[in-house]
Specification:
Layout: E1 3-6, E2 9-11, E3 16-23, E4 28-30, E5 35-41, E6 44-46, E7 51-63, E8 65-67, E9 80-89, E10 92-93, E11 105-108, E12 112-120, E13 125-131, E14 135-139, E15 142-146, E16 160-162, E17 167-171, E18 174-178, E19 185-187, E20 192-196, E21 199-202, E22 225-231, E23 234-238, E24 241-244, E25 248-255, E26 258-264, E27 267-270, E28 277-284, E29 286-292, E30 295-298, E31 300-307, E32 313-317, E33 321-324, E34 329-332, E35 335-342, E36 345-348, E37 353-356, E38 359-365, E39 368-371, E40 375-380, E41 389-393, E42 417-427, E43 429-432, E44 444-445, H1 474-487, E45 493-504, E46 506-512, E47 519-520, E48 532-535, E49 543-547, E50 552-555, E51 559-566, E52 571-573, E53 580-584, E54 587-589, E55 594-604
Parallel strand pairs: 1-3, 2-4, 6-12, 9-13, 12-14, 12-15, 13-16, 14-17, 15-18, 16-19, 17-20, 18-21, 19-22, 20-23, 21-24, 22-25, 23-26, 24-27, 25-28, 26-29, 27-30, 28-31, 29-32, 30-33, 31-34, 32-35, 33-36, 34-37, 35-38, 36-39, 37-40, 38-42, 40-43, 42-45, 43-46, 45-49, 45-50, 49-51, 50-52
Antiparallel strand pairs: 3-7, 5-6, 5-7, 8-9, 9-10, 11-12, 41-44, 41-47, 46-48, 51-55, 53-54, 53-55
């Protein structure tokens, strides 16, 4: 039996195999500069800490992998030193940077990894890292990693990481994580990643210091994202299962020109007692998020859309079903992303679609839209005041006043929200409660009491900034501010119906937060978006409705519009047993084919 007792700072220069190891208090095992030591017991990675260990113990000495800045970390010039079980570079196994003792089963060479099993409870330890210009296939892998992850923006502690210009395919594999901010898969660089018939899970512990400080204004709660995409990466997930209690299933963070997610025949679940987040986040420039015949259940939002340049695309198609305890789709700060919902279902407890501070155009075809509160569209003011805000002041007691510069009757594609609905029947209400009150102008800048992602986004030393993001060049700050300002404020809701029947209210509206609430801070994050809308006369919130000859609208309650166009044979009527009266600028007007403009009220009696 080979035994060793360590009571001092032992620098290990080469791999050592033992049957018994004692690390006394004050003792430590270290590696030379540029290297790291991994302890495996029976092929399972363990943290090196004071204690007594027995079994097949291997202390492996390997080279660190220097990961240059990429993704969101490029903005702050932050690099990381990776510790990996297996490193593939240009289709060869990098023996010096790998830990063979962690490959408990299976085999791996420069082209494939088959039936490998990797398990470790060491913090921030990576499974398989594929780099360079590799084309690599991983089949029947079983990867289990526990513990805190230091930087999921760069893939620290990920199960599988694809970077540089790799093409990685993962077949019939299982990746299980139990760690804060620790992704199962991280894809960056110009890599293309494909997963077929795989399962990904991360149920992290409840860590209140890591539930998302700067993102509280979107209402995120939780401490992990399951898969991550950045730079110019592309990821295809086919027939895969995702299960997490974090704030995100499929994240995009830190892109260059284009990133794309394609989910086909997948199942996603995001739920838990301290969880509120998203299925996927379409955020940035030329980004694509596509759900094709998927089942997505999320406490929060199945899809969030925040395209910033008008070049993104989001699609929900081919039998996809979104369900969840709160909302379906959220568009926030979105700049002209086309959103398609085709042959699919959104069935949520609250509004099926929420739009705030966005100019988004929807193509909704042959879809089933249901909401527990009967609100299909909740078009509202943007109560997200920015990333580094301490308090959002609600406009309680403030009255909106008509702005003559806002045209209630002409469609402004740079600002308005447009819905094209075709070949469907919808039961529910569509409300526009946007105003000219601009909550963001009253917001109090600052940081909440929680540490922003463990201090990762702290400002540079001796800086007065709230975050390193405030240190970007002044001209870019101006561009961002102009972009945000341009999307906030009052909007017209434009609805175009083709072969569609709506039974509900379509109207301008007022909005109210929970009674007694005057401001929202970090601990009240779930009050963001949480409004009740009531049909009310138009102020700055125009509503245009057009019905083609095959469409009908059964008006279930008083509705306030600014423009109504009826083609020949279009039907607008009250429910059975009731009557419908229309007034235009106060004058009762017969409902006939044509276009009506002004302050239009449809009364149901």
């Amino acid at each position: 039996m080979i035994e060793k007792t360590v009571s001092y700072a032992l620098v290990l220069n080469e791999t050592l195999r033992l049957d018994r190891l004692v690390i006394e208090e004050g003792g430590s095992i270290q590696a030379p500069e540029g290297k790291f030591v991994t302890m495996t017991i029976g092929g399972v990675g363990r943290p090196i800490a004071p204690g007594k260990y027995v079994g097949d113990i291997i202390l492996s000495v390997s080279d660190l992998y220097h990961m240059p800045p990429h993704g969101l970390m490029r903005a702050m010039g932050r690099s990381e030193e990776f510790k990996n079980a297996l490193v593939i570079t240009d289709n060869r196994v990098d023996e010096e940077k790998s830990v063979p003792a962690l490959i408990r089963a299976g085999k791996a060479d420069g082209a494939t990894a088959e039936n490998v099993k990797i398990a470790s409870s060491e913090e921030s330890f990576n499974g398989i890292l594929v780099t360079g210009n590799s084309t690599y296939e991983i089949s029947n892998a079983d990867i289990e990693l526990d513990g805190f992850g230091a930087n999921d923006f760069m893939g620290v502690g990920a199960g599988v990481t694809a970077i540089d210009n790799t093409h990685v395919t993962l077949h019939d594999s299982r990746i299980v994580m139990h760690g804060v901010t620790r992704c199962a898969v991280h894809v960056g660089g110009d890599s293309v990643f494909t997963a077929n018939n795989c399962s990904f899970l991360n149920h992290s512990p409840d860590d209140q210091e890591w539930i998302g400080d700067f993102s509280w204004g979107v209402g995120f709660v939780g401490c992990n994202r399951l898969v991550q995409l950045c730079d110019n990466g592309t990821a295809y997930y086919n027939n895969c299962d995702f299960d997490t209690n974090g704030w995100g299933v499929a994240s995009i963070d830190g892109h260059d020109k284009a990133v794309s997610y394609y989910f086909k025949d997948c199942r996603m679940n995001l739920s838990g007692t301290n969880t509120h987040g998203y299925g996927s986040f379409c955020i940035g420039d030329r980004n694509v998020v596509s759900f094709d015949n998927c089942r997505v259940h999320v406490n929060g939002y199945s899809l969030i859309v925040r395209g910033m340049t008008g070049n993104a695309r989001a699609e929900v198609k081919n039998g996809t079903v979104f369900t969840g305890e709160r909302f379906g789709i959220l568009c926030v700060g979105d700049n002209h992303t086309p959103v398609t919902i085709a042959d699919s279902t959104i069935d949520t407890d609250r509004a099926a679609i929420v739009v705030k501070g966005s100019a988004t155009e929807f193509d909704i075809r042959n879809a089933t839209l249901r909401a527990g509160d009967n609100v299909i569209l909740q078009l509202m003011d943007n109560d997200e005041a920015g990333m580094f805000i301490k308090t959002v002041k609600l406009p309680v007691g403030r009255e909106d006043v008509y702005d003559p510069a806002h045209d209630l009757y002409t469609v402004d594609p740079d600002n308005d929200v447009i819905l094209h609905l075709s070949d469907m029947t919808v039961f529910g209400d569509f409300f526009n409660s946007t105003t000219n009150l601009h909550m963001e102008k009253e917001a109090v800048p600052g940081r909440s009491g929680k540490v922003t992602f463990g201090g990762m986004f702290d400002p540079k030393p001796n800086s007065d900034s709230i975050s390193f993001l405030d240190d970007i060049p002044e001209e870019k700050q101006t561009e961002k501010q102009s972009y945000d300002d341009g999307l906030r404020g009052p909007k017209n809701l434009v609805m175009d119906l083709k072969n569609t029947r709506i039974e509900g209210v379509i109207s301008a509206a007022t909005a109210a937060y929970r009674e007694g609430l005057t401001e929202i801070e970090e601990d009240l994050r779930l009050e963001m978006t949480n409004i009740t809308q009531t049909a009310a006369p138009t102020v700055n919130n125009g509503v245009h409705v057009t019905l083609d000859r095959y469409s009908s609208w059964v008006v279930t309650g008083t509705s306030y519009l600014t423009k109504l166009t009826l083609e020949h044979a279009a039907v607008v009527k009250a429910p059975a047993g009731k009557t419908l009266t229309m007034t235009v600028d106060g004058a009762e007007t017969e409902l006939l084919p044509g276009t009506y403009q002004g302050h239009i009220v449809l009364y149901v009696q």
